[in-house]
Design brief:
Chain lengths: 502, 477
């Protein structure tokens, strides 16, 4: 029941924020904050105690809720969380809180409707991370798009209409292919067993002919790599990220992209293990192309926000690589990368947002010498640029290291190429630092430094990214059991995570 | 025809009686409100009488008509939709000059024709239904006599509908010549017997399809649609795109799926081509429109294309899908045209994009309703359109029509673009000053509120409706 509450709280909170916020703007902010904090408390309550972690090995789902919804079609309200979902659910609520705080001053128009959209996106994302019924999953998958579309197209920057339209059509078209695959699986399972159901646990292990397995898997794969995004399905991303308001960019980069990765882990690998293994080399090549392409294009941008957007393509390439390398080490790396990228890129977008709020441009040519003017903002920016670079001590380092370690045992060449991505990321990160925080300061540059609200928010983000970087073990422990069941059985020569990284 | 036949006909009798009563009342007392109330009451009684006759099902009334669960469902849908149209018309006609009362008379007659179609089992009743419907629509489309557009649309509709009726008649004659009967069941039984020559029979069926295709406005018989949608008064457009199409689709579905004339060979190819062409033409041409009513016209063409997939899929699931999709389509289309109706002004309908600019900041509720309706047309969750589209795709996949289903999928993505193009301006800032005198008509708002509730209810908890539909499908197969 707690799981439904997580979603219901956000949905009702959103409605309340809308109605009250239309009169008193600040009410909307406080209501949204309160409902997210309430969610966070519930999630911490669900968090397995360290002693209970061993018990995770026996029971797959920490908590489960199953109620028939449309029994005529075999659709049920089936929600459940395991370690993997729990990490992502926690990330969702955490970044949700951050995005409310970071838009405290930025959003002044139709505050109520904005927060309604924000909370409904988060509710949709939570649903995606918890749904164990394929219809329900698709339902939430689509549900989160509309409010995101509104956030970009109403509160976005200059080119928002184009960007939001592109975002919507790309992801929606991808989703429709997934719908076809879901239905194909539903009918194949139904005609084999006589029970027509969308339930994930029952559909697992449906015997499929190799051809139909590959075709069905491709439907899912397209939806997820569009969301991830991998080259060549990425064109929506730079536009959407750049044009969205700060909170929108944080949620897009931090959470929406993760739903694609989560889908691969939860559905593609377990439902179609053989088909996924057969195309894994191809996907890994795509992943490497994304890593390098994203990094190279990031370096070529003159718009700071667009630059950060392209780094997402590069970072999510590591996630894709880790997922399709398929062994436990690489999968753990992918999960840590999801968390670390969510926090670090989210923070970078917030930094860009704070700069834009102050000097009203995102162009690199209008920046420089910030260190002298706003030391605190520059310090924060430096930290996250270095995190994005993959400096040891930050979460991204652990993640990329694990991914490369895991993929090394699958393909030497691919790993070497992927590792060049680290060099490229060093180049663009240092480029940001050089162009924005050092160098000549433009004439008459004056702006206020971080306020208390902003310092508090950034401090929390820094603590979290350092925590992931310095002591990733709790995160690995929580997700290990899920990943163990996903990891490909043939890669038996695992490096034991528990002993290996500690 | 005996007493039980007559009582089974009660819903149709009530509508016919209402027509006469309204006609007499107009003769003695011209009162807009009174006429509207009588019409609404007649439709409500007719709807209520459906529950009275439901115990006698199925009941064959003369060779012409049958009253069964299937027909009852569609009749109910038609009555509810007509009720909504009548209520919307009231607020629309209030601001227009001229004689308003006859409008309701024609609307009731058209409804009667549709109800006949939903229950018809015979070519004669099919043709009767089509003609009652068409003749009333000629006048309804051209009802605003002071508007050139309206007159033009009326004439266009008149000519094309008359031609299509001729096609239907000729087709019926060909089929009759081969089969020797105009009864659906007999046609189905004899269709595959050795004495029947394939060519004239198929040609006859094809001509009937052409004629009915005009009514459904599927490609390539769609050319009248945008002009008529644009020219007709907004509530009439709502009627044309929902009730009239729904009734014709119901009779086609009954003919092919229920009675069992198999869709195979050339017929299958014809329907596949029509479906694909309708989806693509509707969606692609809608991209280039700037008039809201024309966009909705093209969108309705593509939706009929989706609906044809259920016809091709055939089987219990497909019939359920068709009924559900039509219900969702009715709600959504009525809602969308309802918003157009309410926003319309005295001298023109609210059909330009500019009318919707920054609507969300001027009239937030209306913008919310319109957004919900458009999202439902696009098939987005929480709306009836989502479940409907899901059902149609499921039916297609279930029957292995992968090619059609993939085309449908591609088209849904195409369609998104123009629905979003309508939604975006509503949320753009900067047009607040064009505040038209905000009329708040009670009947119109009530209808819109009801439709929105239905839309979300069907999108979130469709179980009761699905159960109802499944019952009627079981009763017939």
């Amino acid at each position: 029941m707690i799981l439904t509450w997580l979603i219901v709280i956000l949905l009702t909170g959103g409605l309340a924020a809308w109605f009250l916020g239309s009169k008193y703007g600040d009410w909307a902010r406080w209501i949204s904050l309160a409902s997210l904090v309430l969610d966070l408390v519930l999630i911490l309550y669900l968090w397995p105690a360290p002693s209970a972690e061993a018990a995770l090995g026996h029971n797959t789902w920490l908590i489960e809720y199953n109620q028939p919804w449309i029994p005529q079609l075999g659709i049920s309200l089936h929600l459940a969380v395991d370690g993997l979902s729990l990490l992502l659910v926690a990330l969702t609520v955490f970044l949700g809180i951050i995005s409310i705080i970071c838009s405290w001053n930025e959003i002044q128009e139709s505050v109520g409707f904005f927060h309604f959209n924000l909370l409904w996106i988060l509710a949709g994302i939570l649903g995606v991370f918890m749904a164990l019924d394929l219809f329900l999953f698709y339902f939430f998958w689509e549900l989160m798009l509309i409010p995101m579309y509104f956030v970009i197209s109403i509160w976005g920057h200059e080119n928002r209409v184009y960007a939001s339209m592109k975002f919507f059509i790309f992801t929606q078209a991808g989703g429709l292919f997934m719908l076809l695959s879901i239905l194909g699986l539903y009918f194949i399972h139904g005609s084999n067993t006589g029970s027509y159901t969308f339930d994930y646990t029952q559909l697992l292990g449906t015997p499929l002919s190799p051809t139909s397995a590959v075709l069905l898997m491709l439907g899912f794969l397209i939806a997820f790599v569009v969301k991830l995004p991998a080259v060549p399905f990425h064109p929506w991303l730079p536009d959407a990220h750049t044009e969205a308001p700060t909170a929108g960019s944080v949620i897009l980069a931090g959470l929406l992209l993760k739903t694609g990765a989560y889908g691969l882990l939860r559905f593609v690998l377990p439902l179609f293990p053989d088909a996924a293994a057969s195309i894994a080399p191809m996907v890994m090549v795509i992943a490497v192309i994304s890593i390098i392409y994203g990094a190279v294009l990031a370096f070529g941008q003159t718009d700071l926000k667009r630059l950060v957007a392209y780094t997402s393509v590069s970072h999510m390439g590591f996630v894709l690589l880790g997922i399709f390398a398929g062994n436990l080490t690489a999968l753990s790396g992918a999960v840590i990368q999801m968390l670390a990228h969510g926090v670090s890129t989210g923070a970078l977008f917030i930094t860009v947002g704070m700069i834009q709020e102050r000097i009203h441009t995102r162009e690199l040519s209008g920046m420089g010498g910030f260190w002298a003017v706003v030391p605190r903002l520059s310090g924060v920016g430096l930290v996250f640029a270095l995190a994005s670079l993959g400096l040891p001590g930050f979460g991204n380092f652990v993640a990329e290291f694990l991914v490369l370690l895991g993929s090394y045992r699958v393909s030497f060449v691919i790993t070497v190429l992927a590792a060049t991505g680290l060099v490229l990321s060093a180049i663009y990160s240092l480029w940001i630092i050089q162009r924005v925080f050092h160098g000549e300061k433009p004439e008459g540059m004056q702006m206020p430094d971080l306020s208390t609200r902003e310092i508090g928010m950034m401090a929390v983000l820094i603590i979290v990214i350092l925590w992931i970087g310095l002591h990733p073990q709790p995160f690995l422990n929580v997700s290990e059991q899920t990943l163990n069941s996903i990891a490909r059985s043939d890669s038996s020569t695992q490096i034991p995570i528990r002993g290996g990284v500690q | 025809m005996n007493v039980s036949d007559l009582s089974a006909l009660l819903p149709l009798v009530i509508i016919a009686t209402t027509v006469i009563v309204v006609m007499l009342v107009i003769a003695f007392l011209r009162d807009h409100k009174l006429t509207a109330v009588l019409t609404l009451a007649g439709l409500a009684f007719a709807g209520a009488s459906l529950t009275l006759v439901s115990p006698m099902l199925p009941h064959r009334i003369t060779p012409l008509l049958i009253l069964d669960h299937y027909g009852l469902f569609y009749t109910g849908l038609i009555f509810i939709a007509s009720f909504a149209v009548a209520a919307l018309s009231y607020s629309y006609l209030e601001i227009h000059e001229g004689h308003r009362e006859e409008f309701y008379l024609l609307l009731l007659l058209a409804t009667l024709g549709c109800a006949v179609l939903a229950g018809s089992m015979h070519f004669a009743s099919l043709f009767l239904g089509v003609e009652i419907l068409s003749v009333s629509l000629y006048a309804l489309v051209a009802y605003l006599r002071h508007s050139d557009r309206s007159i033009e649309a009326g004439v266009k509709y008149l000519i094309l509908a008359a031609v299509s009726s001729a096609f239907i008649l000729f087709g019926m004659a060909l089929v009759y010549a081969e089969i020797g009967s105009m009864d659906f069941t007999l046609i189905a039984a004899r269709a595959s017997s050795p004495g029947v020559r394939g060519l004239p029979f198929t040609a006859g069926l094809a001509m009937i399809i052409v004629g009915l295709g005009f009514k459904l406005a599927v490609v390539p018989f769609h050319l009248w649609t945008p002009d008529v949608y644009e020219g007709a008064p907004a509530p009439v457009t709502a009627f044309v795109s929902t009730v009239s199409k729904g009734a014709v689709f119901a009779v086609i579905l009954r003919y092919f799926s229920m009675v069992g004339v198999p869709i195979s060979g050339p017929l299958f190819i014809i329907f596949t081509i029509i479906a694909i062409a309708s989806m693509f033409t509707g969606n692609l041409l809608a991209l280039f429109q700037s008039n809201v009513k024309r966009i909705l016209a093209y969108s309705s063409i593509s939706h009929l294309g989706y609906l044809l997939v259920t016809l091709l899929a055939s089987g219990a699931m497909a019939t359920t899908a068709a009924a559900f999709y039509l219900s969702a389509y009715f709600i959504t289309t009525l809602g969308a045209f309802g918003v157009v109706t309410i926003l319309s002004e005295k001298d023109r309908d609210a059909d330009s994009m500019a009318d919707y600019r920054s609507l969300a900041w001027r009239r937030p509720w209306l913008a919310g309703v319109f957004t919900a309706m458009l999202l439902s047309l696009a098939g987005i969750p929480l709306t009836a359109g989502f479940v409907g589209k899901f059902y149609v795709v499921a039916a297609g996949v279930g029957s292995g029509l992968w090619f059609l289903v993939i085309i449908l999928t591609v088209n849904s993505a195409l369609g998104l673009y123009y629905y979003l193009r309508l939604i975006v301006p509503m949320y753009t800032r900067g047009g607040e000053e064009i505040t038209a005198a905000a009329r708040l008509s009670l009947s119109g708002s009530a209808v819109l509120a009801g439709l929105t509730v239905l839309l979300i209810w069907l999108g979130v908890y469709p179980v009761p409706v699905i159960q109802m539909i499944q019952k009627l499908v079981q009763g017939l197969t």
